[in-house]
Amino acid sequence: MYRIEIDRQLCSGFGSCLEAAPRLFELDRSGIASLLASESEDTAALEAARSCPMGAIAVFNRENGEQVS
User: Which of 13, 28, 59, 61 could join 69 via S-S bond, C-beta 3.0 to 4.6 A?
Assistant: First the structure.
């Protein structure tokens, strides 16, 4: 299980997270990424974090709190 966080101050709305994990992310009215789920077992969360050009997404192992992406 993963815990997902977005630093909305860093997000520039490229949408790469939405392309990588459309079940987990959306762009709000201002074009900034928002979470549809803050916890998930979906490994697409890892790809979304890796694909973010601004480094605005962090994914943590929920069990031990370690950042995995």
Answer: 59
